[in-house]
UniProtKB/TrEMBL annotation:
Name of the protein in question: TetR/AcrR family transcriptional regulator
InterPro entries associated with the record: Homeodomain-like_sf, HTH-type_TetR-like_transc_reg, HTH_TetR, Tet_transcr_reg_TetR-rel_C_sf, TetR_C
Ranges where the record places region Disordered: 1-21, 205-227
Domain of life: Bacteria
Organism listed in the record: Pendulispora albinea
Domain named HTH tetR-type: residues: 21-81
Length: 227
């Protein structure tokens, strides 16, 4: 009696229509292009769909509103421009990360960061979305650098990681928003070096950045000794 050929088992297909990567990329790119010339409140889902060559129903299938599209588009652009480094040194990794972020914020795409912050001042719901959709994701990525440094014994494990990240990236955000002082690779090195004076567990002689070499503007004020 002939054997019946066995039918290979197949994995169950996920329910619902899956997101097309090509279509998603078109929507995110279209959103960034529109935001280069218009503020967020003037960009519409109709305009995004038309520019991306998709239906508005397709857009709404994946994003409930344009603000989420904008934040996802911004985060996607930043991830392409700012890869998380892994050089074996927390000091060098944070310096490279900060340099990449500064360069990204200097581009037309990066300049949208200020627009999002401004929009959030009059729209608490959007500010909450910004924190959840963009800020939390970015902090999770750089948290990896901190955790690697702690595991290697470079960084103090008694410091709260969120506080440490604020010390490293906060001055850059302040300068970017206010524009009162320069932002470039030299100042990125200096900002990280100054922060590491309190964050580093012990000096790493192989690090390429010398914490002692910081611009005079970042040195603590020298006060005369009392007496």
């Amino acid at each position: 009696m002939a054997k019946t050929a066995s039918i290979p088992e197949t994995e169950p297909k996920p329910r619902g229509r899956q997101r097309s990567h090509v279509c998603e990329s078109s929507i995110l790119s279209a959103t960034m292009e529109l935001l280069e010339t218009k503020c967020l409140r003037d960009v519409t889902c109709d305009a995004i769909a038309q520019r991306a060559g998709v239906s508005k129903a397709t857009l709404y299938k994946w994003w409930p509103n344009k603000n989420l599209v904008a934040l996802d588009a911004f985060l996607s652009s930043m991830r392409r421009s700012v890869p998380t480094p892994d050089t074996g040194s927390a000091l060098n990794d944070f310096t490279l990360e900060l340099e990449s972020v500064i360069r990204f914020y200097a581009t037309p795409h990066g300049a949208m960061f200020r627009q999002f912050i401004a929009e959030g001042q009059s729209d608490p719901e959007f500010l909450a979305l910004f924190r959840e959709r963009f800020l939390r994701s970015r902090r999770e990525e750089v948290r990896i650098i901190w955790e690697r440094g702690v595991a290697r014994g470079e960084l103090r494990e008694d410091i709260e990681v969120d506080l440490a990240l604020d010390l490293i990236f906060g001055p850059m955000i302040y300068r970017h928003l206010v524009g009162h002082a320069p932002l470039d690779d030299l100042h990125a090195e200096a900002l990280v070096a100054v922060a590491f004076r309190g964050l580093q567990k012990q000096p790493c002689p192989n690090d390429s950045v010398d914490p002692r070499k910081v611009p005079a503007e970042l040195e603590p004020e020298k006060r005369p000794l009392a007496g």
